[in-house]
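User: Hey, quick favor. My workstation is busy. Could you predict this chain's structure for me?
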Amino acid sequence: MLNHLDFSTYLLPQVFIILLISLPLHVSKINQILIAFGLGLLADLFASTPGFHASACLWLILLRMWILGRIDLKEQQANHLQFNIKNISAGTFFYVTSILVLFYHLYLFSLGSIGAIDGYRLIITTMLSSALALLIIVLIQYITLRKLGE
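Assistant: No problem, here it is.
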């Protein structure tokens, strides 16, 4: 949806990745990979990109598994909790989400510019899009928690 809002040529936030980032912690690795691939293919269908989102979503979920494997979340996994601001500390959530959002945008935009890579434009687009996407994701998290009355 945000792809069709013409903010600027440098602002192309991909907010749908919050669905991957906030997957419940108890979901098996193979199911996470299948969900990421399916969501990426769906995004590719709507954006008319030849596998860019599917590839980026797969790498995002692999990076998520690697990062979360290094954080002690055994209690949250045992209780079948989602990875969100309520269940994880806000600092940890923001740190992990920032890394994943930045990685996703850098990977996606570098794939889209293969053959004509403009380093300056790639960095600016990645940073601005990631910042806006991160802001929207954090707002969604807080609005969701307020609506749930928590």
